[in-house]
Design goal:
alpha/beta, two-stranded parallel sheet, globular
């Protein structure tokens, strides 16, 4: 996000169960575990991410925060960050996107990321899918460069982007290693693992590689 001039959230694509839209990983003594926000999916087979309701009948907030506190309370930077996280989780959100954007905005502030953000649903109603959807968004935003994750190599139509004079850049993330609450180091946890253990340490902030 920090590498972009503008960051666009794909909030109008289909919600995927058992993926990262409503859950993430935290480090535990035994390794790692999922922490999950319960959502309403019964009979809602094709709902978009921005249509997903949180299942607020469950007392998930208490269990969610207790799992985080139990596993991170001895981490060096736990106290200053957990207070804000606790406040965000305990707000009464109806939609999953409201909670997710609340968390992302907080993390952006913690990491000093100033990039403007926008939802795809704020641009227009797209019918395109896959590579064509990404290309359509880039054209609507007058973009001349698109930064993709490494998996973009598997589905983006490189020739089509080239014909449209939009340069593709692939973000091949090199995971920094820092001191966690437990050893050995386990990568690819939630960003809160980094915040609780390393704080906002600039020496870890620019380890990713962009490959044209």
């Amino acid at each position: 996000m920090g590498k972009c001039d503008e960051y666009i959230f794909l909030d109008n694509v289909q919600f995927k169960k058992r993926y990262f839209e409503n859950r993430n990983k935290i480090r535990t003594r035994e390794g790692w575990q999922w922490i999950t926000v319960p959502v309403k999916t019964k009979g809602r087979y094709f709902q978009r991410i921005n249509e997903v309701d949180i299942e607020n009948t469950e007392n998930w907030r208490r269990n969610y925060l207790k799992s985080i506190e139990f596993n991170y309370q001895k981490s060096k930077y736990f106290n200053p960050y957990f207070k804000n996280l606790n406040e965000i989780i305990n707000r009464k959100y109806a939609l999953l996107t409201e909670l997710n954007i609340g968390l992302i905005e907080w993390i952006r502030e913690c990491l000093n990321i100033k990039t403007p953000i926008k939802m795809v649903s704020q641009i227009r109603n797209y019918t395109e899918r896959g590579s064509e959807l990404i290309l359509a968004i880039c054209k609507d935003m007058n973009a001349d460069k698109y930064i993709s994750g490494p998996d973009g190599r598997n589905y983006l139509d490189l020739d089509r982007f080239k014909r449209e004079n939009i340069k593709l850049v692939f973000h091949d993330f090199k995971h920094p290693e820092y001191s966690q609450a437990y050893s050995p180091f386990v990568p690819f946890m939630s960003t809160i693992d980094f915040l609780f253990n390393a704080g906002r340490s600039d020496k870890y902030m620019d380890k990713e590689t962009l490959i044209c």
